Protein backbone atom coordinates (compact mmCIF):
# COMPACT_ATOMS: atom_id res chain seq x y z
CA UNK A 1 0.00 0.00 0.00
CA UNK A 2 1.42 3.35 -1.02
CA UNK A 3 0.37 6.68 0.37
CA UNK A 4 -0.22 10.05 -1.29
CA UNK A 5 -0.49 12.95 1.15
CA UNK A 6 -1.92 16.27 -0.03
CA UNK A 7 -1.48 19.36 2.15
CA UNK A 8 -4.36 21.78 1.75
CA UNK A 9 -7.98 21.19 0.66
CA UNK A 10 -8.43 24.47 -1.19
CA UNK A 11 -9.18 24.64 -4.91
CA UNK A 12 -6.07 22.77 -6.08
CA UNK A 13 -5.85 20.24 -3.25
CA UNK A 14 -9.53 19.27 -3.50
CA UNK A 15 -9.30 18.77 -7.25
CA UNK A 16 -6.12 16.68 -6.85
CA UNK A 17 -7.63 14.22 -4.37
CA UNK A 18 -10.99 14.04 -6.13
CA UNK A 19 -9.40 13.33 -9.51
CA UNK A 20 -6.77 10.92 -8.23
CA UNK A 21 -9.15 8.92 -6.05
CA UNK A 22 -10.91 7.88 -9.25
CA UNK A 23 -7.64 7.05 -11.01
CA UNK A 24 -5.73 5.20 -8.27
CA UNK A 25 -6.95 1.80 -7.07
CA UNK A 26 -8.07 1.87 -3.43
CA UNK A 27 -6.32 -1.44 -2.82
CA UNK A 28 -2.99 0.12 -3.82
CA UNK A 29 -3.19 3.75 -2.74
CA UNK A 30 -4.16 5.49 0.47
CA UNK A 31 -4.93 9.16 -0.20
CA UNK A 32 -4.83 11.62 2.69
CA UNK A 33 -5.56 15.34 2.64
CA UNK A 34 -4.61 17.61 5.54
CA UNK A 35 -6.66 20.78 6.05
CA UNK A 36 -7.05 22.94 9.19
CA UNK A 37 -10.24 24.76 8.11
CA UNK A 38 -13.83 23.57 8.33
CA UNK A 39 -15.12 25.81 5.55
CA UNK A 40 -14.17 26.00 1.89
CA UNK A 41 -14.54 29.48 0.38
CA UNK A 42 -15.40 30.30 -3.21
CA UNK A 43 -12.70 32.95 -3.36
CA UNK A 44 -13.66 34.54 -6.72
CA UNK A 45 -16.87 35.65 -4.99
CA UNK A 46 -14.97 37.82 -2.47
CA UNK A 47 -14.67 40.50 -5.17
CA UNK A 48 -18.45 40.98 -5.16
CA UNK A 49 -19.11 40.89 -1.39
CA UNK A 50 -18.10 44.53 -0.77
CA UNK A 51 -20.74 45.66 -3.27
CA UNK A 52 -23.51 43.70 -1.62
CA UNK A 53 -23.74 41.13 -4.40
CA UNK A 54 -23.75 37.53 -3.22
CA UNK A 55 -24.86 36.56 0.22
CA UNK A 56 -22.16 35.04 2.42
CA UNK A 57 -23.79 31.58 2.37
CA UNK A 58 -23.40 31.42 -1.43
CA UNK A 59 -19.63 31.51 -0.99
CA UNK A 60 -18.98 28.86 1.66
CA UNK A 61 -19.43 25.12 1.95
CA UNK A 62 -18.19 22.70 4.58
CA UNK A 63 -14.89 21.08 3.54
CA UNK A 64 -15.70 17.46 4.33
CA UNK A 65 -18.50 16.78 1.78
CA UNK A 66 -16.31 18.22 -0.99
CA UNK A 67 -13.73 15.49 -0.43
CA UNK A 68 -14.36 12.24 -2.32
CA UNK A 69 -15.33 9.13 -0.37
CA UNK A 70 -12.24 7.01 0.07
CA UNK A 71 -10.01 9.99 0.81
CA UNK A 72 -8.88 10.40 4.40
CA UNK A 73 -9.41 13.97 5.64
CA UNK A 74 -7.12 14.97 8.50
CA UNK A 75 -8.20 18.12 10.29
CA UNK A 76 -4.94 19.69 11.40
CA UNK A 77 -2.31 22.38 10.91
CA UNK A 78 1.02 21.34 9.43
CA UNK A 79 4.07 22.06 11.53
CA UNK A 80 6.68 20.95 9.00
CA UNK A 81 7.68 18.44 6.39
CA UNK A 82 10.70 16.32 7.21
CA UNK A 83 11.84 15.51 3.69
CA UNK A 84 14.65 13.22 4.80
CA UNK A 85 12.12 10.94 6.54
CA UNK A 86 9.24 11.37 4.02
CA UNK A 87 7.11 12.51 6.91
CA UNK A 88 4.71 15.36 7.69
CA UNK A 89 4.69 16.57 11.29
CA UNK A 90 1.35 18.07 12.33
CA UNK A 91 1.01 20.91 14.83
CA UNK A 92 -0.51 18.51 17.38
CA UNK A 93 2.54 16.27 17.17
CA UNK A 94 1.05 13.51 15.01
CA UNK A 95 3.21 12.27 12.17
CA UNK A 96 1.99 11.26 8.72
CA UNK A 97 4.24 9.20 6.46
CA UNK A 98 4.07 9.66 2.71
CA UNK A 99 5.44 8.06 -0.41
CA UNK A 100 4.43 11.11 -2.43
CA UNK A 101 3.59 14.58 -1.14
CA UNK A 102 1.60 17.34 -2.84
CA UNK A 103 1.83 20.82 -1.31
CA UNK A 104 -1.34 22.76 -2.15
CA UNK A 105 -1.50 25.25 0.69
CA UNK A 106 -1.69 28.31 -1.57
CA UNK A 107 -0.80 31.83 -0.57
CA UNK A 108 -2.49 34.26 1.77
CA UNK A 109 -2.45 38.01 2.36
CA UNK A 110 0.15 39.14 4.90
CA UNK A 111 -0.67 42.70 5.95
CA UNK A 112 1.82 42.51 8.84
CA UNK A 113 4.65 42.60 6.28
CA UNK A 114 4.05 46.29 5.46
CA UNK A 115 4.74 48.72 8.33
CA UNK A 116 1.69 50.74 9.28
CA UNK A 117 -0.85 48.51 7.57
CA UNK A 118 -1.92 46.26 10.42
CA UNK A 119 -0.25 48.16 13.25
CA UNK A 120 -1.10 51.77 12.45
CA UNK A 121 -4.55 51.75 14.05
CA UNK A 122 -6.42 52.07 10.74
CA UNK A 123 -6.81 48.40 9.77
CA UNK A 124 -10.46 47.70 8.98
CA UNK A 125 -11.27 51.33 9.85
CA UNK A 126 -9.96 53.19 6.80
CA UNK A 127 -7.78 50.35 5.44
CA UNK A 128 -9.37 47.18 4.04
CA UNK A 129 -8.56 44.11 2.02
CA UNK A 130 -11.05 42.04 0.04
CA UNK A 131 -9.02 38.83 -0.34
CA UNK A 132 -10.34 37.43 2.92
CA UNK A 133 -13.93 36.67 3.74
CA UNK A 134 -13.86 38.85 6.86
CA UNK A 135 -12.09 41.68 5.01
CA UNK A 136 -14.59 41.67 2.14
CA UNK A 137 -17.54 41.79 4.55
CA UNK A 138 -15.98 44.61 6.59
CA UNK A 139 -15.32 46.54 3.38
CA UNK A 140 -18.99 46.24 2.39
CA UNK A 141 -19.93 48.19 5.52
CA UNK A 142 -17.21 50.77 4.92
CA UNK A 143 -18.37 51.34 1.34
CA UNK A 144 -21.92 51.87 2.55
CA UNK A 145 -20.66 54.53 4.97
CA UNK A 146 -18.27 56.13 2.46
CA UNK A 147 -19.27 59.65 1.61
CA UNK A 148 -16.69 60.68 -0.98
CA UNK A 149 -13.03 61.65 -0.85
CA UNK A 150 -10.06 59.72 -2.12
CA UNK A 151 -10.45 55.99 -2.58
CA UNK A 152 -7.17 54.26 -3.38
CA UNK A 153 -7.02 50.71 -4.76
CA UNK A 154 -3.54 49.35 -4.14
CA UNK A 155 -1.36 46.32 -4.84
CA UNK A 156 1.61 45.82 -2.51
CA UNK A 157 3.77 43.53 -4.57
CA UNK A 158 3.48 40.85 -7.26
CA UNK A 159 2.70 38.00 -7.43
CA UNK A 160 -0.83 38.09 -5.99
CA UNK A 161 -3.80 35.79 -6.24
CA UNK A 162 -6.03 36.64 -9.17
CA UNK A 163 -3.96 39.57 -10.51
CA UNK A 164 -6.92 41.11 -12.35
CA UNK A 165 -9.12 41.31 -9.22
CA UNK A 166 -7.81 44.73 -8.08
CA UNK A 167 -8.64 46.14 -11.54
CA UNK A 168 -12.08 44.57 -11.37
CA UNK A 169 -12.53 46.08 -7.93
CA UNK A 170 -11.70 49.54 -9.33
CA UNK A 171 -14.20 49.10 -12.20
CA UNK A 172 -16.91 47.88 -9.84
CA UNK A 173 -16.18 50.68 -7.33
CA UNK A 174 -16.65 53.23 -10.11
CA UNK A 175 -20.05 51.74 -10.95
CA UNK A 176 -21.02 51.44 -7.27
CA UNK A 177 -20.13 55.07 -6.50
CA UNK A 178 -22.09 56.25 -9.54
CA UNK A 179 -25.07 54.29 -8.31
CA UNK A 180 -24.82 56.00 -4.94
CA UNK A 181 -24.48 59.40 -6.59
CA UNK A 182 -21.08 60.17 -5.03
CA UNK A 183 -18.74 59.40 -7.93
CA UNK A 184 -18.24 63.13 -8.64
CA UNK A 185 -17.09 63.61 -5.05
CA UNK A 186 -14.70 60.68 -5.17
CA UNK A 187 -11.22 60.57 -6.57
CA UNK A 188 -10.37 57.01 -7.59
CA UNK A 189 -6.66 56.10 -7.71
CA UNK A 190 -5.11 52.80 -8.78
CA UNK A 191 -1.61 52.36 -7.30
CA UNK A 192 0.42 49.45 -8.64
CA UNK A 193 4.02 48.23 -8.51
CA UNK A 194 3.70 47.34 -12.20
CA UNK A 195 4.62 49.79 -14.96
CA UNK A 196 1.00 49.77 -16.16
CA UNK A 197 -2.46 48.33 -15.57
CA UNK A 198 -1.33 44.76 -16.20
CA UNK A 199 1.85 42.85 -16.86
CA UNK A 200 1.40 41.90 -20.49
CA UNK A 201 1.55 44.67 -23.12
CA UNK A 202 -1.63 44.14 -25.19
CA UNK A 203 -3.84 43.58 -22.13
CA UNK A 204 -2.12 46.39 -20.19
CA UNK A 205 -2.97 48.86 -22.97
CA UNK A 206 -6.61 47.71 -23.19
CA UNK A 207 -7.15 47.62 -19.42
CA UNK A 208 -5.27 50.92 -19.02
CA UNK A 209 -7.63 52.66 -21.41
CA UNK A 210 -10.57 51.20 -19.47
CA UNK A 211 -9.18 52.94 -16.35
CA UNK A 212 -8.90 56.19 -18.34
CA UNK A 213 -12.47 55.91 -19.60
CA UNK A 214 -13.66 55.69 -16.00
CA UNK A 215 -11.40 58.55 -14.85
CA UNK A 216 -9.47 56.27 -12.53
CA UNK A 217 -5.96 57.71 -12.11
CA UNK A 218 -3.15 55.16 -12.28
CA UNK A 219 0.04 55.53 -10.21
CA UNK A 220 2.46 53.03 -11.80
CA UNK A 221 5.81 51.72 -10.50
CA UNK A 222 4.61 52.40 -6.96
CA UNK A 223 6.28 50.06 -4.49
CA UNK A 224 4.96 50.75 -1.01
CA UNK A 225 7.40 50.94 1.89
CA UNK A 226 5.02 51.99 4.68
CA UNK A 227 1.72 53.55 5.58
CA UNK A 228 1.80 56.71 7.66
CA UNK A 229 -0.59 59.60 8.31
CA UNK A 230 -3.28 58.00 6.16
CA UNK A 231 -0.91 57.92 3.19
CA UNK A 232 0.83 55.21 1.22
CA UNK A 233 4.55 56.03 1.06
CA UNK A 234 6.71 54.40 -1.61
CA UNK A 235 10.39 53.46 -1.38
CA UNK A 236 11.16 56.49 -3.55
CA UNK A 237 9.16 58.72 -1.16
CA UNK A 238 6.07 59.32 -3.27
CA UNK A 239 3.00 59.77 -1.07
CA UNK A 240 -0.59 58.89 -1.89
CA UNK A 241 -3.04 60.16 0.74
CA UNK A 242 -6.31 58.25 1.12
CA UNK A 243 -9.65 58.50 2.86
CA UNK A 244 -10.36 54.84 2.11
CA UNK A 245 -7.61 52.39 1.18
CA UNK A 246 -8.43 49.06 -0.43
CA UNK A 247 -5.12 47.23 -0.46
CA UNK A 248 -3.92 43.85 -1.60
CA UNK A 249 -1.31 42.94 1.02
CA UNK A 250 1.85 41.00 0.21
CA UNK A 251 0.94 37.40 -0.69
CA UNK A 252 3.08 34.66 0.84
CA UNK A 253 2.99 30.90 0.97
CA UNK A 254 2.49 28.97 4.22
CA UNK A 255 5.07 29.33 6.98
CA UNK A 256 5.55 25.56 7.29
CA UNK A 257 6.99 25.66 3.75
CA UNK A 258 9.77 27.92 5.06
CA UNK A 259 10.24 25.84 8.23
CA UNK A 260 10.64 22.74 6.04
CA UNK A 261 13.33 24.37 3.90
CA UNK A 262 11.10 24.03 0.83
CA UNK A 263 10.39 27.69 0.06
CA UNK A 264 11.86 30.76 -1.62
CA UNK A 265 11.81 34.30 -0.19
CA UNK A 266 7.98 34.33 -0.42
CA UNK A 267 7.57 30.78 0.94
CA UNK A 268 6.69 29.59 -2.56
CA UNK A 269 7.94 26.13 -3.52
CA UNK A 270 10.31 26.26 -6.52
CA UNK A 271 9.12 23.63 -9.00
CA UNK A 272 9.64 22.43 -12.54
CA UNK A 273 7.16 24.62 -14.42
CA UNK A 274 5.92 21.77 -16.61
CA UNK A 275 5.48 18.95 -14.06
CA UNK A 276 5.27 20.77 -10.65
CA UNK A 277 7.95 18.49 -9.19
CA UNK A 278 9.70 20.41 -6.39
CA UNK A 279 13.29 21.24 -7.35
CA UNK A 280 15.74 18.94 -5.60
CA UNK A 281 13.09 16.31 -4.73
CA UNK A 282 11.67 13.32 -6.60
CA UNK A 283 8.55 12.68 -4.51
CA UNK A 284 7.29 16.18 -3.64
CA UNK A 285 5.05 18.28 -5.88
CA UNK A 286 3.61 21.74 -5.32
CA UNK A 287 0.49 22.75 -7.22
CA UNK A 288 -1.81 25.78 -7.38
CA UNK A 289 -0.78 29.07 -5.79
CA UNK A 290 1.79 27.37 -3.52
CA UNK A 291 4.40 26.97 -6.26
CA UNK A 292 6.56 29.53 -8.07
CA UNK A 293 5.52 28.99 -11.71
CA UNK A 294 5.54 32.25 -13.69
CA UNK A 295 1.84 32.52 -14.42
CA UNK A 296 -1.23 33.83 -12.62
CA UNK A 297 -2.09 32.59 -9.16
CA UNK A 298 -5.64 31.67 -10.09
CA UNK A 299 -8.17 28.90 -9.93
CA UNK A 300 -8.03 28.44 -13.70
CA UNK A 301 -4.30 27.76 -13.53
CA UNK A 302 -4.89 25.31 -10.68
CA UNK A 303 -7.54 23.58 -12.76
CA UNK A 304 -5.45 23.25 -15.92
CA UNK A 305 -2.45 22.26 -13.78
CA UNK A 306 -4.37 19.50 -12.03
CA UNK A 307 -5.51 18.10 -15.40
CA UNK A 308 -1.88 17.67 -16.43
CA UNK A 309 -0.71 16.58 -12.98
CA UNK A 310 -3.41 13.90 -12.50
CA UNK A 311 -2.49 12.22 -15.78
CA UNK A 312 1.22 12.46 -14.98
CA UNK A 313 0.77 11.07 -11.49
CA UNK A 314 -1.26 8.15 -12.78
CA UNK A 315 1.64 7.31 -15.09
CA UNK A 316 4.13 7.71 -12.27
CA UNK A 317 2.07 5.40 -10.06
CA UNK A 318 2.16 2.79 -12.83
CA UNK A 319 5.95 3.05 -13.02
CA UNK A 320 5.91 5.00 -16.27
CA UNK A 321 7.59 8.35 -17.01
CA UNK A 322 5.57 11.57 -16.69
CA UNK A 323 5.00 12.83 -20.24
CA UNK A 324 2.44 15.62 -19.69
CA UNK A 325 3.83 19.14 -19.76
CA UNK A 326 1.92 22.13 -18.42
CA UNK A 327 2.07 25.15 -20.76
CA UNK A 328 1.16 27.86 -18.23
CA UNK A 329 -2.44 28.09 -19.45
CA UNK A 330 -4.59 30.63 -17.60
CA UNK A 331 -7.88 32.22 -18.40
CA UNK A 332 -10.17 34.47 -16.47
CA UNK A 333 -13.23 36.61 -16.77
CA UNK A 334 -12.55 40.24 -15.90
CA UNK A 335 -15.66 41.95 -14.52
CA UNK A 336 -15.75 45.50 -15.87
CA UNK A 337 -18.98 46.80 -14.32
CA UNK A 338 -22.41 47.63 -15.77
CA UNK A 339 -23.15 43.97 -16.40
CA UNK A 340 -20.22 43.44 -18.72
CA UNK A 341 -16.94 41.61 -18.61
CA UNK A 342 -13.86 40.62 -20.56
CA UNK A 343 -12.23 37.24 -20.98
CA UNK A 344 -8.48 36.78 -21.13
CA UNK A 345 -6.72 33.56 -22.10
CA UNK A 346 -2.95 33.10 -22.13
CA UNK A 347 0.03 30.88 -21.26
CA UNK A 348 3.79 31.00 -20.58
CA UNK A 349 4.54 32.04 -24.17
CA UNK A 350 1.43 33.84 -25.44
CA UNK A 351 0.13 37.00 -23.81
CA UNK A 352 -3.63 37.75 -23.60
CA UNK A 353 -4.82 38.69 -27.10
CA UNK A 354 -8.08 39.99 -28.54
CA UNK A 355 -10.42 37.72 -30.52
CA UNK A 356 -12.97 35.09 -29.55
CA UNK A 357 -12.78 32.05 -27.28
CA UNK A 358 -14.66 29.09 -28.67
CA UNK A 359 -16.35 26.80 -26.14
CA UNK A 360 -18.55 24.08 -27.65
CA UNK A 361 -22.20 24.62 -26.73
CA UNK A 362 -21.64 27.81 -24.76
CA UNK A 363 -19.33 30.28 -26.48
CA UNK A 364 -17.91 32.00 -28.22
CA UNK A 365 -16.80 34.43 -25.53
CA UNK A 366 -15.21 37.70 -26.55
CA UNK A 367 -11.51 37.95 -25.67
CA UNK A 368 -10.09 41.19 -24.27
CA UNK A 369 -13.29 43.08 -25.19
CA UNK A 370 -16.26 43.95 -22.97
CA UNK A 371 -19.50 42.06 -23.46
CA UNK A 372 -22.46 40.87 -21.40
CA UNK A 373 -21.79 37.19 -22.20
CA UNK A 374 -18.50 37.38 -20.31
CA UNK A 375 -20.28 38.82 -17.27
CA UNK A 376 -22.76 35.95 -17.32
CA UNK A 377 -19.93 33.49 -17.86
CA UNK A 378 -18.31 34.78 -14.71
CA UNK A 379 -21.56 34.50 -12.75
CA UNK A 380 -22.26 30.98 -14.04
CA UNK A 381 -18.81 29.94 -12.93
CA UNK A 382 -19.80 29.78 -9.26
CA UNK A 383 -22.15 26.90 -10.04
CA UNK A 384 -19.50 25.20 -12.15
CA UNK A 385 -16.96 25.60 -9.35
CA UNK A 386 -19.03 23.80 -6.73
CA UNK A 387 -20.59 21.20 -9.03
CA UNK A 388 -18.01 20.40 -11.70
CA UNK A 389 -14.60 21.81 -10.89
CA UNK A 390 -14.03 20.73 -7.27
CA UNK A 391 -15.46 17.22 -7.75
CA UNK A 392 -12.98 16.80 -10.61
CA UNK A 393 -15.65 16.42 -13.29
CA UNK A 394 -14.64 17.40 -16.83
CA UNK A 395 -15.16 20.99 -17.98
CA UNK A 396 -15.38 21.77 -21.71
CA UNK A 397 -12.04 23.59 -21.52
CA UNK A 398 -8.84 21.99 -22.79
CA UNK A 399 -5.85 22.09 -20.43
CA UNK A 400 -3.56 23.50 -23.09
CA UNK A 401 -4.04 26.93 -24.59
CA UNK A 402 -5.20 27.15 -28.20
CA UNK A 403 -4.56 29.97 -30.67
CA UNK A 404 -7.99 29.40 -32.28
CA UNK A 405 -9.88 32.69 -32.48
CA UNK A 406 -6.99 34.85 -31.24
CA UNK A 407 -5.65 37.83 -33.19
CA UNK A 408 -2.14 39.23 -32.87
CA UNK A 409 -2.42 43.03 -33.14
CA UNK A 410 -0.15 44.34 -35.90
CA UNK A 411 1.35 47.04 -33.72
CA UNK A 412 2.15 46.59 -30.08
CA UNK A 413 2.00 49.29 -27.47
CA UNK B 1 17.71 38.99 -32.31
CA UNK B 2 19.20 42.51 -32.65
CA UNK B 3 22.93 43.02 -32.31
CA UNK B 4 24.24 46.32 -31.02
CA UNK B 5 27.70 47.75 -30.48
CA UNK B 6 28.55 48.70 -26.91
CA UNK B 7 32.05 49.71 -25.83
CA UNK B 8 33.36 48.65 -29.23
CA UNK B 9 31.89 45.13 -29.05
CA UNK B 10 29.00 43.39 -30.75
CA UNK B 11 26.42 42.49 -28.12
CA UNK B 12 23.16 40.54 -28.50
CA UNK B 13 20.18 42.36 -26.99
CA UNK B 14 16.39 42.16 -27.02
CA UNK B 15 13.99 44.85 -28.29
CA UNK B 16 14.43 46.88 -25.11
CA UNK B 17 18.22 46.61 -25.00
CA UNK B 18 18.54 43.88 -22.35
CA UNK B 19 21.45 41.50 -23.02
CA UNK B 20 20.36 38.07 -24.20
CA UNK B 21 23.68 36.20 -23.85
CA UNK B 22 24.85 35.80 -20.24
CA UNK B 23 28.48 35.30 -21.20
CA UNK B 24 28.78 38.48 -23.28
CA UNK B 25 28.73 40.57 -20.08
CA UNK B 26 31.78 41.72 -18.15
CA UNK B 27 32.42 44.51 -15.63
CA UNK B 28 33.67 46.90 -18.29
CA UNK B 29 30.46 46.44 -20.24
CA UNK B 30 28.47 47.01 -17.04
CA UNK B 31 30.12 50.40 -16.57
CA UNK B 32 29.21 51.28 -20.12
CA UNK B 33 25.58 50.09 -19.72
CA UNK B 34 25.27 52.01 -16.44
CA UNK B 35 26.59 55.15 -18.14
CA UNK B 36 23.83 54.89 -20.74
CA UNK B 37 21.19 55.24 -18.00
CA UNK B 38 23.09 57.90 -16.06
CA UNK B 39 24.52 55.73 -13.30
CA UNK B 40 28.13 55.70 -12.13
CA UNK B 41 28.90 52.38 -10.48
CA UNK B 42 30.13 52.36 -6.88
CA UNK B 43 30.99 49.44 -4.59
CA UNK B 44 27.38 49.41 -3.41
CA UNK B 45 26.18 49.01 -6.99
CA UNK B 46 28.66 46.18 -7.52
CA UNK B 47 27.39 44.31 -4.50
CA UNK B 48 23.90 44.25 -6.01
CA UNK B 49 25.15 43.41 -9.51
CA UNK B 50 27.33 40.57 -8.23
CA UNK B 51 24.41 39.07 -6.34
CA UNK B 52 22.18 39.30 -9.41
CA UNK B 53 24.78 37.65 -11.67
CA UNK B 54 25.45 34.81 -9.22
CA UNK B 55 21.79 34.27 -8.42
CA UNK B 56 20.90 34.14 -12.11
CA UNK B 57 23.64 31.56 -12.73
CA UNK B 58 22.16 29.39 -9.96
CA UNK B 59 18.43 29.98 -10.51
CA UNK B 60 18.11 30.71 -14.22
CA UNK B 61 15.92 33.73 -13.53
CA UNK B 62 16.53 37.37 -12.74
CA UNK B 63 16.04 38.02 -9.02
CA UNK B 64 13.14 40.19 -7.91
CA UNK B 65 13.71 43.19 -5.63
CA UNK B 66 12.40 41.14 -2.73
CA UNK B 67 14.89 38.39 -3.47
CA UNK B 68 17.80 40.86 -3.67
CA UNK B 69 16.65 42.25 -0.34
CA UNK B 70 15.86 39.00 1.52
CA UNK B 71 18.49 36.68 0.04
CA UNK B 72 21.08 39.24 -1.13
CA UNK B 73 20.83 41.32 2.04
CA UNK B 74 20.52 44.71 0.31
CA UNK B 75 17.55 46.73 1.61
CA UNK B 76 14.96 47.71 -1.01
CA UNK B 77 15.28 51.34 0.07
CA UNK B 78 18.97 51.26 -0.87
CA UNK B 79 18.19 49.70 -4.26
CA UNK B 80 15.87 52.62 -5.03
CA UNK B 81 18.73 55.01 -4.17
CA UNK B 82 21.28 53.12 -6.26
CA UNK B 83 19.02 52.54 -9.27
CA UNK B 84 16.36 55.28 -9.06
CA UNK B 85 12.71 54.88 -10.15
CA UNK B 86 12.84 51.38 -11.62
CA UNK B 87 15.51 49.46 -9.71
CA UNK B 88 14.51 45.95 -10.78
CA UNK B 89 14.62 46.83 -14.45
CA UNK B 90 17.75 48.98 -14.23
CA UNK B 91 19.71 46.41 -12.20
CA UNK B 92 18.88 43.68 -14.68
CA UNK B 93 19.89 45.93 -17.57
CA UNK B 94 23.30 46.79 -16.07
CA UNK B 95 23.88 43.19 -14.90
CA UNK B 96 23.34 41.96 -18.46
CA UNK B 97 20.35 39.79 -17.50
CA UNK B 98 16.85 39.40 -18.96
CA UNK B 99 14.26 41.90 -17.81
CA UNK B 100 12.62 40.43 -14.70
CA UNK B 101 9.26 39.13 -15.85
CA UNK B 102 6.47 40.81 -13.97
CA UNK B 103 4.59 37.84 -12.64
CA UNK B 104 1.09 37.72 -14.08
Automatic annotation (TrEMBL), chain A:
Coiled coil: none annotated. It comes from the Bacteria. Residues 3-127 form the FAD/NAD(P)-binding domain. InterPro entries: FAD/NAD-bd_sf (IPR036188), FAD/NAD-binding_dom (IPR023753), SQRD (IPR052541). Gene3D superfamilies: FAD/NAD(P)-binding domain. Pfam families: Pyr_redox_2. This is NAD(P)/FAD-dependent oxidoreductase. It comes from Paractinoplanes ovalisporus.
Automatic annotation (TrEMBL), chain B:
It holds the Pfam family DsrC. It comes from the Bacteria. InterPro entries: DsrC-like_C (IPR042072), DsrC-like_dom_sf (IPR025526), DsrC-like_N (IPR043163), DsrC/TusE (IPR007453). SUPFAM superfamilies: DsrC, the gamma subunit of dissimilatory sulfite reductase. It is found in: Cytoplasm. Keywords: Cytoplasm. Its main location: cytoplasm. Belongs to the DsrC/TusE family. NCBIfam families: dsrC_tusE_dsvC (TIGR03342). This is TusE/DsrC/DsvC family sulfur relay protein.
Amino acid sequence: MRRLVVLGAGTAGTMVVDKLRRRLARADWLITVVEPRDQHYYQPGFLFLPFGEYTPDQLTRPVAPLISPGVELVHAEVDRVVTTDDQVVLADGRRVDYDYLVIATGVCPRPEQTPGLLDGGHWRRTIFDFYTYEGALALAEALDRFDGGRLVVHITEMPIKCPVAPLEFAFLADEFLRGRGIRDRTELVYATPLPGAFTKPVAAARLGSMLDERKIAIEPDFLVERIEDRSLVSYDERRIPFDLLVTVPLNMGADFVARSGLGDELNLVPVDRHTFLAKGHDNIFAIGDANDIPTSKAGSVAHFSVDVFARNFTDLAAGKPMTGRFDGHANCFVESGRGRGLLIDFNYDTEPLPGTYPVPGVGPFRLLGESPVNHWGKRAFRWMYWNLLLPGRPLPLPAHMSMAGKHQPSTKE
Amino acid sequence: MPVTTIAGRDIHVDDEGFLTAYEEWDPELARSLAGRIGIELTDAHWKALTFLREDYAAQGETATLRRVSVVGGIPTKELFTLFPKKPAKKMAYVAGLPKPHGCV
